[in-house]
Amino acid sequence: MKYAQIEIEEKLRSLASMMASDLGDEAAQGMKLDYDRAAKKYADLFAKSEGDDSFSFFYAPPDSSIRVTFIDFKGQVLGESETDYQTMENHLSRKEIQEAIKGNIGQDIRASHTLDVDFLYIAAPISSTEGIARVSVPLNRIKHINQMIWLYALVGILGGLLFTIPLAKKLSSSVTKPVRELINACGEIAKGNYFRRVYYHANDELGEMAKNFNLMASKLENTVKDLTEQNAKVDSILKSMQGGLIAVNIRQRIILINTMACDILGIPYHQGILGMNLIKLVRNQQINKVLRDSMEKNVPQMELINIEEKIIRVYANPIKGHQNENMGGIVTMLDITNIKKLEQMRTEFVSNVSHELKTPLTSIRGFIDTLKDGAVNDPEVAGKFLDIIDIEAERLSRLINEILQLSEIESMKQDRNIEDVFLKPVIDEVFSILQQSAEERKVGLHADIAESVSIQANKDKIKQLLINLIDNAIKYNIENGSVTVKAEQAGGKVLISVRDTGIGIEKEYLDRIFERFYRVDRGRSSELGGTGLGLSIVKHIVNLYQGRIDVDSDPGKGTEFKIEIPD
Q1: 338 φ, ψ to 5°?
Q2: Smallest Cα–Cα separation from 406: which of 327, 464, 458, 344?
Q3: Taking the CA of residue 135 as centre, how many other CA atoms within 13 Å lie in the half-sphere pointing to its CB?
Q4: How far apart are CA 83 and CA 112, in angstroms?
Q5: Tell me, what's the pLDDT at 485?
Q6: Of the candidates 43, 52, 414, 425, which lies 20 to 30 Å from 467 by C-alpha distance?
Q7: Which DSSP string do the residues of 33-48 spell out, in sequence order?
């Protein structure tokens, strides 16, 4: 198509040059030139020439004749083949005219203001004169040629299609159908349907391909099945592990990690975590160092590290190949925070028990030694010392009993002596037991509980729970204070509240009041006869029945213990 336009441009250049040469020769011979007459003559001549040219005749559309125009160097039109030249405007500003004035062959494509059609203009200077010969042709000729080329191309394509359709159908039935079946089978296997097979039994290359494809699919199915089973086993093992596990290759890229390891390290688990560099993922220098030392030295390593108030025991082991070469490393992490806390609690418990037992025993032995030294002969002193020994012995007995009670409750996984316990009679019984102590301290006891409120539990343990709470509320109350006990059933639970108007507890101590032997004010607790085990026993009784206990306290205003136990 571009070639057709170039051919027309070359033809017009030849025509413009020919006219400029002819008129230049006539002017050199002194002949008077009639430009308008010459324009029409040349236009007719070109039209006849095109009519004899079978190629041009075949391609030339109607109204596509070559226009001839003569212009002087001032832009004045001297002659025109298709219109009255005297009515035409000045052409000096035209691009092709400017080029011709410079002595070159000018060219331009633009719309004709006279005919309102896009034209290709070629202008050449006329020698021996100040004139310009210009030829132009409408671009619809080029468009027409392009249309004819497209027409021939379309006819050729359609003819080719009509010839190849029968052949294509034949090839489709013999070649493309089994190939398409192979493609569909590959697509289904790619989607996970490893049972797919191809049924084509011809004794040709496609038949051999189908046979090998089915063999490959069968082996792939078995391989994927084995891998799936192995991955499921490994995944189940990793998820059921109590500790965290991370395996890396020799470049410390993660090849295996379980969710417990992510939980311990505080990182979200996702599929993209595999393949990541351990150093970039785990921002803990101690873990990275333990693993690096294990891999470099090719020996196991162990270290205790702290991660966000958790104590983690880290084991690092190298991964060894067939020839004992290092292929990576494995890190296992075990959260031993609770174990360490239990060890510390056991140590503190033994220490506290020893101290609590030693104190009354020391006091008893001291007074006995004093009596032996002669005080026994003084009836007044001896009686006073014996009363103190009796008090200390009672304190020692109470301490031992509470230790045994606590030990019994801690060792119980489930209380089997369960009955329907109505709380109103139990609270009345507890009040009667503690009434004397309350009167001595001028503390009023009040109960707000319906007769129907009941709980499935062991009556003695519920009674012990209430005695410990109410006794503490009396001991740490103020003169003319009060203790109020409430109980109700709501939402499948029994809600028990023990509130006093006593001295209260500072917030900084609330988290520790249920620990064994913990006393907010040790001096005052000892004076009041407390062992430091009462609230710990209460906590374990509540836990025995899958309940919960909370405490609210306002120093100087009082304390409230709130218990929820499923009914």
Answers
A1: -65, -35
A2: 464
A3: 28
A4: 12
A5: 94
A6: 414
A7: P-HHHHHHHHHHHHHH
SS3 of 399, please? helix
Q: How far apart are CA 455 and CA 274, in angstroms?
A: 52
H/E stretch holding 548? strand 548-554
pLDDT, residue 355, reads 56
> What count of Cα atoms within 13 Å lies in the side-chain half-sphere of residue 439?
6
Q: Could you count the other beta carbons within 10 Å of the beta carbon of residue 411?
A: 7
Query: What are the structure tokens assigned to 378, written together?
Result: 């003084």
Report residue 272 CA to chain centroid gap. 9
Structure tokens at 150: 């497209």
| List of residues 6+ apart from 564 with CB closer than 8 A | 493, 494, 495, 547, 548, 549
Report yes or no: 63 and 138 within 8 Å, Cβ to Cβ.
yes
- How does DSSP classify residue 421? E
Classify residue 219 by burial, with Cβ atoms within 10 Å: 0-12, 13-18, 19+.
exposed
What is the chain's mean pLDDT, rounded?
A: 80
**Confidence label for 422 from pLDDT (cuts 50, 70 and 90):** very high
Which residue's entry shows tokens 């005052």?
524
Q: Which of 283-292, 395-404, 489-498, 542-551 has the lowest mean pLDDT?
A: 395-404
Per the structure block, which two tokens stand in for 388? 């103190």
Output the pLDDT for position 285. Answer: 82
Contact 468, 433 (CB under 8 A): no
Predicted TM-score (pTM) of this structure:
0.41
Contact 194, 166 (CB under 8 A): no
Distance CA(223)–CA(517), nearest Å, equals 63
Q: Which residues contact 542 (CB under 8 A, 6 or more apart)?
A: 465, 548, 549, 563, 565
pLDDT of residue 481: 92
Q: Residue 425 above 60 pLDDT?
A: yes
* Number of CB atoms found within 10 A of residue 535's CB: 22
The Cα 330–Cα 257 span in angstroms is 10
Q: What is the rounded distance in angstroms from the CA atom of residue 361 to the CA atom of residue 365?
A: 6
Amino acid at 20: A
Is pLDDT above 60 for 372? yes
